[in-house]
Amino acid sequence: MNNDNRNDWQECKLGDIVKVVSGFAFKSEDFSHEGTPVIKINNIASGALSLNEVQCYPYEITDKLNQFILKNGDVLIALTGSHVHQPSSMVGRVTRYNLPYSALLNQRAGKVVVKSSDTTDKDFIFYFLTQKRVTIDLALNAGGSANQANISSEQLINLPVLLPPLPEQRAIAAVLYSLDDKIDLLNRQNKTLEGLAATLWRKMFIIDAAPNWKKGKLGDYGEFKNGINYSRHENGDANYSILNVRDIVESKYVNKSSFEIVSINQEKATSYLLKKRDIVIVRSASPGESLIVLEDVQNLIYSGFSIRLRCHDQSNSLFLFQFLQSYKKEMDIFSDGTTLKNINQEILNSIELVVPDKEIVEKYNSRVTNVFSKILINQEQIRTLSTLRDSLLPRLMSGEVRVKV
Fold first, then answer.
1. Rg for the chain (alpha carbons), in Å?
2. Sign of the CA dihedral running 149, 150, 154, 155
């Protein structure tokens, strides 16, 4: 890499080099459980492609739907979502469609298509749109209501782009892709390890459950505490990292590098400090999602959109965390609320589960300790690679750091 001049870079608007195709306005009666998957706004707005609760279009794809067909590598953007200061899915998030089969795109999700592959690299555009300054700018300037933000096509096409020659675009994208590929590999390893821990839990506590095990309630194992409510304009006497809903939804484990920093008075924040083996459960927006703190953490608190479970006996934490992972669908059903579902302490306290013998729990802990240790090692590598990628991204896109072609 070098810092040569950028005389061959072109200043332009995003609309000069790409077009944004908004998805098709499907009706609710168009969907079924079989057919061609339809990617909706909720499948991309978290910043990564999620196929949870995907619905399908069961009919033959006609000519009018051709432009809404998704193929591997397509760049997708959330045109609707929450504002930047809110903890749920953020408008302007970008992801790539990376599945081996075709799908259709629903309305309020956009597909970014380069006008000419002879001058513009699709992967370069993807990385341009993933820059934090771009996503935050789109979210801050989005229209819509207080609860829902909308990006206009005018916002997108007027984004200024500094465009290097095509070979350098490809070289920049290749550097960033190599880092993303390593991160993806580690994430897939963690998914495999999580599956091993969950399979072992199911075998020991469901399939091989002893008939004499009693039934108890989740509240018997520990104490619940709602998260801290605070104003973003507070100017306290201490700084804290805060765990938000998005952090819990995106990872089952603490990711030290991703937390927002808030300033809150120490007297107010102290009782919300998280400790090793605490479990944090999402209360609203994505009720039932949970995260476990596997490491010692410093000055980390959790938001009012979540509830902390602190076990009386820490040896039960891994057992209960896996139980909560298996119980997410039930918690979604039991949650209160119409437009926004909620889990509360009363519901959590009353959840029934079997009470295994202590020696069985300890046996489970001994078997999965190495699994979770490997997950933590992978998490640390992911943090290191993510930090490197995030620091390189704006410097490569601005030409501050050049890639030798």
1. 23
2. positive
Q: Residues of 180-205 as b/e, b for ≥16 C-beta within 10 angstroms?
A: beebeebeebbeebbeebeebbeebb
In this structure, whether the domain defined by 10-162 belongs to CATH 3.30.470.20 is answered with no
CATH fold group of domain 214-355: Adenine-n6-DNA-methyltransferase TaqI; Chain A, domain 2 (3.90.220)
pLDDT at 338 over 60: no
β-pair partners for 263:
239
- Mind listing the pLDDT tens digit for each residue in 151-165? 888 889 899 999 999
Whole-angstrom distance, CA of residue 405 vs CA of residue 400 = 15
Token digits for 350? 């009353």
- What is the distance between the alpha carbons of residues 350 and 367, in angstroms, rounded to a whole number? 29
The reply to whether 214-355 shares the fold of 10-162 is yes
- How far is the C-alpha of 38 from the C-alpha of 27, rounded, in Å? 12
**Residue showing tokens 């290749």:** 174
Average pLDDT over residues 245-258: 78
Alpha carbons within 13 A on the beta-carbon side of 364? 28
Length, in residues, of the chain? 405
Instruction: Say if pTM beats, i.e. exceeds, 0.85.
Output: no
Residue-wise pLDDT tens digits, 195-206: 999 999 999 999
Beta partners for residue 76, in sequence order: 95, 111
What is the rounded average pLDDT of the residues 206-229? 94
In the numeric block, the tokens 């839990």 are attached to 201
Nearest CA to 77 out of 116, 115, 134 is that of 134
Domain regions of the chain by residue span: 10-162, 214-355
Give the Cα-Cα-Cα angle 382, 388, 391 (nearest 5 degrees).
Answer: 135
Per residue in 268-310, pLDDT tens?
Answer: 999 999 999 999 999 977 788 999 999 888 999 999 999 999 9
pLDDT at position 371, please?
95
3-class state of residue 268 by DSSP: helix
In whole angstroms, give the CA distance from residue 327 to residue 50.
20
Are the CB atoms for 200 and 372 separated by under 8 Å? no
